[in-house]
Design goal:
Elements lengths: L1 H25 L31 E10 L2 E4 L3 E5 L1 E3 L8 H12 L3 E11 L5 E7 L2 E2 H7 L4 E3 L8 H13 L3 H4 L1 H10 L10 H4 L3 E3 L10 E13 L5 E5 L8 E5 L11 H4 L4 E7 L1 E3 L2 E5 L6 E3 L2
Parallel strand pairs: 3-6, 9-10, 12-15
Antiparallel strand pairs: 1-2, 1-5, 2-3, 4-8, 5-6, 6-7, 10-11, 10-13, 11-12, 13-16, 14-15
Helix pairs in contact: 3-4
Length: 302
């Protein structure tokens, strides 16, 4: 027996090593994570593995409303409603749209109808939602709680939804088109002044937040509204521009090692403000970002 082990020790070491690796993979906590669930953590798009098929026309119970165009179904899977775009958290009509969607479909069974694509990059099912004969997208647009937003491929309900949006806009219906919403829009469109981060003073290109992805590995100035800002568990601060995560156009990041150089609580100071940031554009998990090491890289418009 001893002679057998001596002659085959290399082979046996390989077998034992493979067994250990296999056991580690099998019992890993990552193994049982269910994709398609909302986590609230800023991370990139998950790979849409092991998400069950959801045939067009399937009826599902709605268990939670995320915002005016996103909800969870039984099993914890996320669905993004096709045909409309409602405000994200920290935007003026977020609560109105979310509350109305809760009234319409929460704890009810809705029929989910496929569009041109099955899922998006965040592993959410893309579906039109119907409560009995009511097209939820059409209803939200009609009530002035969401804008029409359809891809070129999705033509099935395009005419009805765009007409409903136009009528709501003409009648100043709902949160999106009311007089108070228009006043807020006028305020946000006022011309801001900048003292430091201008093309003239820096010689750098100025781009809007949603254009930043076109300037990979280039140093530019990015301008946009900080739609949401927060401090993570690792003490990293994220500024998400134009929309909240995961729909942001662009992100500026301050790591904990640099935060002593900035104002106290930058995530509160710059939230909901129009700012410019300067730096080299990098891509992280599918989104353009700039790392802020110095307060000289960020300026709030006045």
């Amino acid at each position: 027996m001893k002679e057998f082990f001596e002659k085959n020790k290399t082979f046996l070491a390989i077998v034992v090593g493979a067994a250990v690796i296999g056991a580690a993979i099998y019992f890993s906590p990552e193994k049982d994570k269910k994709p398609g669930l909302t986590s609230g953590v800023q991370s990139g798009a998950e790979e849409c593995q092991n998400i069950p098929d959801l045939p067009s026309g399937t009826a599902k119970l709605i268990t939670k409303i995320i915002d005016g165009d996103t909800f969870l179904i039984e099993g914890g899977y996320s669905v993004r409603i096709l045909g409309i775009d409602a405000d994200e958290r920290d935007h003026p009509c977020y609560d109105a749209a979310k509350n109305r969607l809760e009234e319409l479909i929460l704890n009810k069974e809705v029929k989910l109808e496929k569009g041109a694509e099955d899922k998006d990059q965040w592993c959410r099912y893309l579906r039109y939602a119907f409560l009995d004969d009511t097209n939820v997208s059409l209803e939200m647009a009609k009530e002035g709680l969401a804008v029409a937003r359809l891809s070129p491929e999705d033509v099935k309900y395009r005419e009805e939804i765009t007409k409903a949006e136009s009528q709501a806009k003409a009648d100043k219906t709902g949160c999106k088109w009311s007089a108070s919403a228009q006043a807020s829009e006028d305020e946000s469109s006022r011309v801001l002044t900048w003292e430091k981060l201008t093309p003239e003073l820096t010689g750098l290109k100025l781009a809007g937040a949603c254009e930043a992805g076109n300037y990979q590995n280039q140093e530019i100035i990015v301008e946009g509204k900080v739609a949401a800002a927060y401090r993570s568990k690792t003490n990293t601060i994220f500024f998400n521009f134009e929309k909240s995560y995961p729909n942001q156009c662009f992100t500026a990041v301050i790591f904990s090692s640099s935060q002593n150089k900035f104002v106290d609580s930058p995530e509160k100071y710059y939230s909901d403000k129009t700012v410019r940031v300067r730096g080299k554009i990098k891509e992280y998990q599918g989104k353009p970002e700039i790392i802020l090491d110095s307060p000289a890289q960020i300026e709030m418009g006045k």
